[in-house]
Design brief:
CATH topology of the largest domain: Rossmann fold
Largest sheet: 7 strands, mixed
Number of domains: 2
Number of helices: 11
Helix content: 40-55%
Number of strands: 11
Radius of gyration: 22 Å
CATH class of the largest domain: Alpha Beta
Bound molecules: adenosine-5'-diphosphate, 6-O-phosphono-beta-D-fructofuranose
Shape: elongated
Length: 324
């Protein structure tokens, strides 16, 4: 149980994600509506350690709901992983009167929040990452926008790939998680999907698949490859040499992390922002906001971080059945 909160701090941490601004707006407005003060922490934990903290009013978050990125900026901050860094961060919370901190980020950011809670700061995490790799929740801020951006790009690549009767490898983001690759693979009707969770590095199987499909009259072969597997350019060279078919690789890169958030990202991020403030108002701490089994809910941070990560085997298996 948290102590009563009077000042809420909010920060964004780790990779940015479209919809983070909608969440910031909801946190600020919901807190102000309930008579609380709000402080915006700039540049994630780096800003907390360097005391880059400013008062925020309802007006400060106008005209941001539709914008990608994060108006609070974000950072990766190795210092936060040291006890000195955590101590300074907690001291700065106290100096600024922050008794409840909302951390919008991925599981690394939640680990930082958990560390701060040991110094008596009430903390609530909101899942913000395009990777969808936080097990306790079926939704993370930014995933919907990112997969729609990638899907549209892959549609365009498919047009030219078909015209030239080429194979295409499209590399999407996801260093450790294949959710973006799996969703785009299904949405774009890819012939092969390579996921960090279960790729067997059997390139011969892919080559045989391309040759068999070509014999059956397929005019293109789309391979969606996750960043975690990478090496798309070299893979294209090897596939071209083995199949004799022109093969091109495209790395979509950071375009997937930017852009105006979709309706879903705006609405879910907004709901989660208010939910986080409501948790703090209800005296809760060490919680992660989640969307699970069709409802907004919350989990203990420890419990959320301990959940094993996985990819949907069923969805992966249907992608294979459909790629005939
Ligand atoms: P994400 O939050 O998207 O998973 P990172 O893993 O890069 O992104 O983590 C973001 C930041 O959270 C890190 O730069 C660091 O400041 C903080 N962080 C990550 N792991 C820890 C940890 N074990 N202890 C304290 N802080 C951490
Ligand atoms: O935001 C998530 C993510 O896009 C991951 O897929 C990727 O591993 C990581 O961020 C790369 O981010 P950066 O290059 O900013 O460290």
């Amino acid at each position: 149980m948290a102590n009563e909160v009077s000042t809420i701090g909010v920060l964004t941490s780790g990779g940015d994600a479209p919809g983070m601004n909608a969440a910031i707006r909801a946190v600020v407005r919901c807190a102000v509506y309930n008579g609380l003060k709000v402080k915006g922490v700039h540049r994630g934990y780096a800003g907390l350690i360097n005391n880059e903290i400013k008062d925020m009013t309802a007006k400060d978050v106008s005209d941001i709901i539709q914008r990608g990125g994060t108006v609070l900026q974000t950072a990766r901050c190795p210092e936060m992983m040291t006890s000195e860094g955590q101590n300074t961060a907690a001291e700065n919370c106290k100096k600024n009167g922050i008794d409840g901190l909302v951390v919008i980020g991925g599981d690394g950011s939640f680990r930082g929040a958990l560390d701060l809670s040991k110094y008596g700061i009430n903390v609530v995490g909101i899942p913000g990452t395009i990777d969808l790799d936080i097990t306790c929740t079926d939704y993370t801020i930014g995933f919907d926008t990112a997969v729609n951006t990638a899907m549209e790009a892959i549609d365009k690549i498919r047009d030219t790939s078909t015209s030239h009767e080429r194979c295409s490898i499209i590399e999407v983001m996801g260093r450790n998680a294949g959710h973006i690759a799996l969703w785009c693979g299904l949405a774009n009707g890819a012939e092969d999907i390579l996921l960090p969770e279960n790729y067997d590095y059997d390139e011969r199987r892919i080559i045989d698949h391309i040759i068999a499909n070509r014999k059956r009259g397929k005019k293109h072969h789309i391979i969606v490859n996750a960043e975690g597997i990478g090496h798309s350019m070299l893979m294209a060279e090897r596939i071209e040499a083995a199949t004799g078919l022109e093969t091109r690789a495209t790395i979509l890169g950071y375009m997937q992390r930017g852009g105006s958030p979709t309706c879903k990202d705006r609405v879910y991020a907004t709901t989660m922002g208010c939910y986080a403030v409501d948790l703090l108002l209800a005296g809760k701490t060490n919680r992660v906001v989640a969307y699970s089994e069709g409802e907004f809910t919350d989990y203990d941070i420890d419990e959320a971080l301990a959940m094993e990560k996985s990819i949907s085997e069923y969805q992966y298996s249907i992608s294979k059945r459909l790629a005939i």
